[in-house]
Amino acid sequence: MSINTQAAKLSTFALVMLIIGAVDNIRNLPAAALFGSTLIFFYVFSAIVFLIPSALVSAELASSWTDRGGICHWVKLAFGDRCAFMAIWLQWIANLVWFPTILSFLAGVIAYLINPELVHSKLYVISTILIIFWSLTLLNLKGIHVSAKFISFCTIAGMAIPMALIIGLGIAWVFLGHPLQVSFTAATLWPSFSHIDSWVSLTAIMTAFAGMELSAVHVKEINNPQKTFPRALYISVWLILMTMILGSLAIAVVLPKDQINIVNGVMVAFTSFFASYHITWLMPIITVMILLGTFGSIVSWVISPAKGLLQAAQLGFLPDFFQRVNKHGVAANLLITQAVIVSFICLAFLLMPSIGGSYWLLTALNIQLYMIMYVMMFIAAIYLRYKYADVPRPFAIPGGKVGVWLACLLGLIGCSTTLIVGFVPPAGLDVGSIFSYELIFISGMVVTILPTVFFYLYQKKTSCVLSADVVPVA
Predict the structure, then answer these.
(1) What is the pLDDT of residue 79?
(2) For residues 381 and 404, is the Cβ–Cβ distance under 8 A?
(3) Which pLDDT belongs to residue 198?
(4) Which one-letter DSSP state was computed for residue 67?
């Protein structure tokens, strides 16, 4: 089937919108707001040990290998096909686990337009998730250029404007002398490291920062990737960090901790702000805008990991069925299969006693899987600096090999810390007994990683068959 290769290249602006649309999302704010003023420390800490290192590594690798990009290609160059498949599988399956969480946020936002009490109905949440995800999957079948335009529109209308509004309302709240639900003193800004609960916030924040490398799979569709990709990452890092900190604080200052719901906390915060300023008529408008922003975020995550998994399929780890692309260059069969699996994962909302508990379980499972992938990426970046020392690097991590080691070690520290605390649910969430939570959590990790064994065996078997079909030359 022919593929249209004449489409216009993605510009710096389009790439920034693609990155911000994937990473910077207003739905991440309530989970961080739960931790009050200490969230500033954790955001800065996470930026130093994860956001900035992952952006630097992604920029160097994407600008050095522009024929093909993404975690699958980078790990393949460093460690071979099998490690590459494991890396892209972790990215892909982590996102499948994550989809129900962001979709449940969407369900909560829609409920505000209909009946806020619906957010507590598991049947409503699951039904809404399935309808939205299948609709956006069909949109992604039109190709990355259609998706990029949709994402750019959604990011501006549905993320940038609501994010700026909630930050502005939070600043006005402080300067107008309204009562603050958090205090900003030396004692409250610095977390208590003796309590594991203080570190649990890291899971939510690292989740919010994941995805800087995601757009690298589109490197062939980027205009002048050697310069465009690093520039877009630089702009995105600062915008993401500042909006996340200020947006989370805006929620923390207006809502008491026990009223912050990680599913619909954003809507509750806007309701409180608008009621205080007597502009409640804006609520339906802001609700629709937030819906648009979240739609754009989901579209980014639906198509990019699937495109990376297509690279692994072409290495022989998946049957030919998954390698087929439509006329827009999209792995249509992979996207449809992805939607089917997400539909089954939604059943996790039936396993936990509360929607919030299910939300956190899937969020924690997502970031655990993703952090393992990032560990592979940081180690691969170090190895590639030595294995391919002569490859031109239009963008190189400052400081030479020392700089690479420093960035990657910081990244590995952030990943390791998150992997450790990711097994602990935050206090105050109804997750049932700790034993049942840990059992479901660990079982989830095993079930999501185990299929790689079967794909390894499939690839080995098909390789043997192909080798057997080769007739030796006399």
Answers:
(1) 93
(2) yes
(3) 62
(4) S
Q: Tokens standing for 225?
A: 């990737």
pLDDT interval class at 467 (50, 70, 90): very low
Cα 116 to chain centroid distance, Å, stands at 27
Residue 449: Cβ within 10 Å count: 15
Residue numbers of the domain that contains 275 = 12-463
Q: What does the alpha-carbon distance between residue 5 and residue 47 come to, in Å, rounded to a whole number?
A: 37
Domain with 61 in it: what CATH number?
Answer: 1.20.1740.10
215-246: pLDDT as tens digits: 666 666 777 777 777 888 888 888 888 988 99
Q: How many CA atoms lie within 13 A of 225 on its CB side?
A: 23
Residue 235 contacts by C-beta under 8 Å, 6 or more apart in sequence? 12, 16
pLDDT in tens, 31-55: 788 778 888 888 888 889 988 899 8
Phi, psi of 378 (to 5 degrees): -65, -40
Answer for the pair 202, 413: CB distance below 8 angstroms, yes or no. no
Distance of alpha carbon 43 from alpha carbon 139, whole angstroms: 33
Tell me how far apart the alpha carbons of residues 276 and 194 are, in angstroms, rounded to a whole number.
38
Q: Is 2 a domain residue?
A: no
Residue 7, in any domain of the structure: no
In the chain, the number of structural domains is 1
Closest CA to 349 of 359, 337, 341, 339: 359
Q: What are phi and psi of 414, to 5 degrees?
A: -65, -45
